[in-house]
From TrEMBL:
Organism: Scleropages formosus (Asian bonytongue)
UniProt gene name: FKBP8
Molecular-function GO term, any one: protein folding chaperone
Record protein name field: peptidylprolyl isomerase
Spans of repeat TPR: 303-336
Catalytic activity: [protein]-peptidylproline (omega=180) = [protein]-peptidylproline (omega=0)
Compositional bias of kind Acidic residues: 25-44
Amino acid sequence: MADKDEKLARGGDDAQNAGQSGLDSAEDLEVLSSADAEDSDGDGEPPPLEDAGGGKKDNNKNREGAPDGAEGVENQGSDSPAPDPEDEWLDVLGNGLLKKKVLEAGKGPDSKPTKGQNVKIYLKASLADGTVVVEEPCLSFTVGDGDVIQALDLTVLLMEMDERALVQTDAKYAYGALGSTTPAVPPDASLILELKLLEAVEALDLELMAPVERIALAGQKRERGNTYYQRGDYAFAVNSYSIALQITEASSKVDITPQEEKEILDMKVKCLNNMAAAQLKLDHYDAALRSCVSVLAHQPDNIKALFRKGKVLALQGEYAEAIKILKSALKLEPSNKTIHAELSKLVKKHTEQRGVEQAMYKKMLGNPSSSTVQKHKAKSSWSFSWKWLFGATAVAIGGVALSVVIAARN
């Protein structure tokens, strides 16, 4: 039950994860379509979660169960009781898709958690019809890291310590159009979340963490990125991979063995490879190229990095260099059909590109071949005319000379 609950909060879905998308959690390379989509500055700072600041109170629905369009309490009559502020809904994002209502006040505004802290909450999630999909007595996550669905990340920041709250979230901030099989959440399903903030503490100092703990934490962030990738949320995937990468690159003030160094490096390479795949999906070619180059700096024969580097160069129109990279990858894995297919496609495109360029040059410079032929023909005709004239003259002179000699003899 605990595993199921954690998958709900973190957006995990075994069915959605069935198709491995060429990430390092799978063995096969992915042939990324050229139409698939990090800008040159986006290799480490993808778009953050939607701003959770402020929000608006929804005064037209200040009573639980009030019908749509019901008038506010202030319009009901002079003897109606004044509304309880805790009974009002807060429109978190101002778009009506994510609302929060305080059920039990907490310890004051100063007790609210901040981004980057580790929190523990009680969570009960239900569908709109009341079906409970999960109940987790103590769910832990880092605020703002994208470890959980957006509805939790956004609303927990607004909660006081020990506060109980009710949250209504649209599918956009839960499981979206895909839904989930584990937990069983239909596509485009809204959720009702009952929350209580139990604890908020500062995250551990990465420099003081044991290497094995850093590796495990980086692995968790990378797997979360894989989940986002498989759901098509590529910007959030890049965010998770970036956080995992920062964990692997943090300096350490504790002793670390050569084996642990190797494991950390392996995790770093996996994060970079997966990040490159997500950046390609976002059409962020410069950032994807930098990720591939970083991998190859550590592992020059990394097949996935070579393949994706070739893909990026091809998408940037650098066909000759892309072909060179893919040929080097093919030497390492001669039987790899994916590389064979991509290389054949690029060779054909490169040939077509050269043909177009040659035609363009001919158009710019005229048609040198035909003009040369015409000049050659003209020169040949003049040469023939002069030869004929010279020969005829020689014959005529010879005839005259012969006539003079014969006349002299007579």
